[in-house]
Design goal:
There is one protein chain. By secondary structure, the protein is α/β, with parallel strands linked by helices. α4 runs parallel beside α5 and α9 (266-275) crosses α14 (382-394). The protein is built from 15 helices and 13 strands. It has helices at 23-34, 75-84, 101-113, 123-137, 151-162, 187-203, 214-222, 237-242, 266-275, 291-299, 314-321, 342-350, 363-368, 382-394, 411-423; strands at 6-11, 38-44, 66-70, 141-146, 165-170, 206-209, 228-230, 251-256, 281-286, 305-308, 326-330, 354-357, 374-377. The strands form two sheets. The chain has a seven-stranded parallel β-sheet with strand order 3-2-1-4-5-6-7, sandwiched between helices.
Amino acid sequence: MKDAKKILILTYYWPPSGGSGVQRWMYFAKYLKQLGWTPYVITVDEKQASYPVLDFELLDEVKDIQVIKTDTKEPIRFYSLVVSGKPDKGVPQGQVPKKSLFRKCAAFVRGNFFIPDARKGWNTYAKSEAEKLILQRGIKKVITTGPPHSTHLIGLELKVKFGVHWWADFRDPWTDIFYNKDLYRTAWVKSIDARLEEKVLKTAEGIFTTVGGNLVRKLQIKAPEQSIHILPNGYDASLMSSIPKASQKPFHVVYTGLLTENQDYLPVIKVLDELAGPKNIRLSLAGNIPIDIIKKIKNNAPNIEVVYKGYLAHKDVISLMKSGDLLLNFLFKGADQDMISGKLLEYLASQVPILSIGNPKSEAGRLLIKSSLARMIDANDVDAQKIFIQKVFRLKGKATNILPEIDKWSRKNITSVLNNILAQGKFAH
């Protein structure tokens, strides 16, 4: 019917927001359009948003998508201003700073006064625009994606008011997210948040998530009757193939993305420094990395050439990856069972050898072991780290890391799975 190929996507993160999280629905929207859908996106005005990083080049990927940008009121910008002096610089990613008494108090306020999160001030504006669009365009299918998980509360209200078919996408866990333990949440707040999550899980007509295993089990315990669909993060095959592989004279180690003190990065840095005695090693880092961590890496690796490139546009990140001889990855402590990042899939698609630090039995570890030259090694197992790095070093210039059936992880193929879910069964129109 005329409404079957229209879909409304509510996402806080959208270009020019940078980072890996934004790319999930950016690419879904792009490829859904190629499959005959008309996606409408409601997001926040980037001038008012709490975006830690910007990447204006990503706008080219979605220039044909109809986007409505709204106002917002966000206490997290005030939180950032208080802890960092700037409205965006102190927006936490991957950890909760709490070294001082002041920061501990700030974490308590953030965890107990903004339920489910500090970006819920966007909801009023986004819901108003969504209601107008649903009435004007006759849209019957809606997707909300979180974090921020407060976005799902918009979908909940739209379903009650209009009877739309609504799917909630959990890019990361909600109440089980690893950094919640650092927010000093009271039992009362935890119970409220858990009730909100349970209502979303039980009311939505389907749940999307990025990995199976542990995360799906947790969700099914909370909503046993719910349909849960695994839509993994992936890589864009056309972008990956458009960027040629390069090489640098030194043994080139590359790390891209967010890096925090909630990741065990120092042990392997020390191993690299030890191996750099007779070897020429360059370590390139790119992403949203605090200057204190860059200084710590340099202090612990005096024999390595450390190059910090700052935050790069996505295309430049892929180019940097493909110039590497070895790619480093560090799992977040406490999140290893529930996440396979889009970055890790891009690492695999680049065909460069990978050393990831974390639990070998994690979801990511089980994926890496299937490839020909990638390992997940515990942070404390420095001997295994050293053996793997030496092996890759000996293969410089001729090492290729192959993951069988890597094509199924492409954004385009994953969108085909999404297309089938949206178009078939009891949800079809």
